[in-house]
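Problem: given the chain below (207 residues), write out its structure.
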Amino acid sequence: MSKTTPRTRATYHVGNLAPQLLEAAREMLEEVGPTKLSLRAVSERVGVSATASYHHYANRAELIGHLAAQGFRELARELIAKDAQSPGSQRLRNATLAYFAFARSNPALYQLMFGPEFADGEMLAELQQAREEAFGELRRIIAELLERQVDSAEVRRAALASWSYTHGLASLVIHKVLQFPADTSNERFVDSTLQGLEQLFLIGQRG
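Solution.
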């Protein structure tokens, strides 16, 4: 892979350095993965000193926390946009499609969002809020479909089941454990797995 030329120091000023660092971090994340993503390397990509970057992000953990938060906010917007275009009977299916498409379009960012970097329970307040916002959109859709309160036990269970299914499917495809056929689309692929789930539940009801 060819090296990307660092940006010149004239391309930034203090007021917009933080978003430029996030943009560069996201580019590098897709290119080299999270393990080689450091604040110093990102600073070099932007064309500033690490000292200047430390004024905005105290360390690598804070940088990737903000990056993951950005991903969750984008995911929430995708769910909202797709839901606005969906008839009632298709809302959950289309939310699943929006989620799956986001994961496939941003594989490195998606893996960072759910990766071990944040598994110990300690995370930025901004990241926690963004994650809850994305999950909240799914709960809202399910609550309206079930005609239940969004904080009801039924909605929480259904939302957890839906998220677990979609996250598992996306992760299997991203890690190439499950091959995504070259001649198919996100819609056909997701619909096929949903049909498989439906068949399993119908068998269970007959039993």
